[in-house]
Amino acid sequence: MKEERYYSVRMRAAKNGPHEHGGKHISGGELLSTYSDLKNSVNALLEKGLHHSRGTPDFMQIQFESIHEPIKRIQPLHIDTNEADTVEKGRKLSRLLLEKVGIERQVIEKAFTEWTKYSGMRGAILIDVHSGKRIDDRQEKGVRVSRIDWMKTNFELWADYFHVPKSTRIREALVIATKVCAHPATIAELCWSDDPEYTTGYVASKKLGYQRITNLKEYGDERGCRIFFVDCRKDLNAYIHYLEKQPVFIHWEVENETTINRKK
Predict the structure, then answer these.
(1) Exposure winner among 103, 163, 174, 185, fewest CB in 10 A?
(2) Same domain, 50 and 128
(3) CA pair distance 130, 195, nearest whole angstrom
(4) What is the distance between the alpha carbons of residues 223 and 231, in angstroms, rounded to a whole number?
(5) What HAMAP family does the record point to (predicted)?
């Protein structure tokens, strides 16, 4: 990276008061920014929070803090898109993909049951891949992946190369999935958005890459899902610290690309 100070810029927006006072989560966002670009970064997150299909917020918090830790650069996961014409077929495929990385069926079913208890949360549920039990202590808040970004110009080069839409939504989701799956404790991630107008979700892992599934929830459903299947034999505190505090830039380099003839 350039010898320049970077800042973590974060936004959260809610309706009917702050999240901690029972407000409905509307939107959230994460950026890494130089000092000279802070104003643009804050404005980008402000626009994101003000214009969301979940509603108009009456509470928003935007904050930034200086980053002192070295920033890691990670190559993005490869991407495939799987078409599912019903939610039932999409959920079935998500289960099959999770089984493909070695997660037992009963653990997957326990995770889906656990999700229904906390489907309004902002962060992720951590599920022990061996028992199916939730192992974080964050309750409704969950664990939020932070200090992440992918420069737009580099993302667009990647999108052109793989003939992927230059969608901000894809970029943001792939940034999270790539950081999460880069840690050795992560077995897989299952996710779909809380945006009522967006029904596509994904299963991601180092082994499978980023597997988009076009129907993982019904249109109009505001319940989102983010589950990390974790090997709890690793240091859980160190894992959560990595998710929340380790700064990561996703950066694609064509000369390192070994994926050939994958579905776009």
Answers:
(1) 163
(2) no
(3) 31
(4) 26
(5) BioW
Q: Are residues 37 and 117 in the same domain?
A: no
Q: Which domain holds residue 99?
A: 73-256
121 and 139 share one domain: yes
Domain boundary among 41, 68, 95: 68
| Residue 19 DSSP SS3 | helix
Sheet with 125-128, strands from edge to edge, namely 79-82, 209-213, 201-205, 186-192, 225-230, 125-128
Quickly count: other Cβ atoms within 10 Å of residue 206's Cβ.
Answer: 15
pLDDT at 1: 44
Computed on alpha carbons and rounded to an integer, the radius of gyration of the chain in Å comes to: 18
Domain shared by 56 and 27, yes or no:
yes
Report d(CA 111, CA 107) in Å as an integer. 6
The two structure tokens encoding residue 45: 């997150």
Scan for tokens 């089984």, then name that residue: 99
Query: Which residue is associated with the tokens 């993909």?
Result: 97
Q: Is there a single domain that holds both residue 87 and residue 58?
A: no
Burial (Cβ within 10 Å: 0-12, 13-18, ≥19) of residue 111 = buried
Distance of CA 145 to the CA centre of its chain: 7
Backbone phi, psi, residue 206, to 5°: -60, -40
pTM: 0.89
Tokens of 128: 């022990």
